[in-house]
Amino acid sequence: FDGCRCRIYAERPLHCRQFECLLLKGVKTGRTGTAAALQTIRAARELTEAVRRLLRALGDTDEQTALATRFRRTARRLEELGPDRKAAETFGELTLAVHELNLLLSQSFYPGTCAGACHQ
């Protein structure tokens, strides 16, 4: 694992090759319709992009690093510098977006695990 990318994808372990997220399992078993699954994926992508956009607005443009790492780094930096009002408002929006993304991921993709931005 290198930032947000698997460096050994072609030779990944069996566990990784066999992994299916909860959403895919739901589609395969008929518990979740294809249209609903695609809507969930769209929502996750939109939330992910919102988090990226807010991180960029706060000065973190390191797109190769996991979102959770970038969020923590940004929080530390703002805490040390004492953010101005605009940065504080943007960080509040970011915090909510990260929370919403974590909820969606934990409920739809990775229940019972380290869900959330750590998987982005």
Notes on the protein architecture:
- With 120 residues, the protein is mostly helical.
- The protein contains five helices and no strands.
- The chain has helices at residues 14-18, 22-29, 34-57, 67-81, 85-108.
- Helix 3 (34-57) packs parallel to helix 4 (67-81).
- The longest helix has 24 residues, at 34-57.
- The termini are close together.
Q: Count helical runs.
A: 5
* Principal-axis shape: globular
Instruction: Measure the end-to-end span.
Output: 12 Å
User: How many strands in all?
Assistant: 0
Helix share bin? 55-70%
The sequence of SSEs as H and E is HHHHH
How much of the polypeptide forms β-strand, as a percent range? under 5%
Structural class: mainly alpha
Spans of 5+ residues with little confidence (pLDDT < 50)? 113-120
Task: Please outline the major beta sheet.
Answer: none
**Average residue pLDDT:** 87
Q: If you compute it from the alpha carbons, what radius of gyration comes out, rounded to the nearest whole angstrom?
A: 16 Å
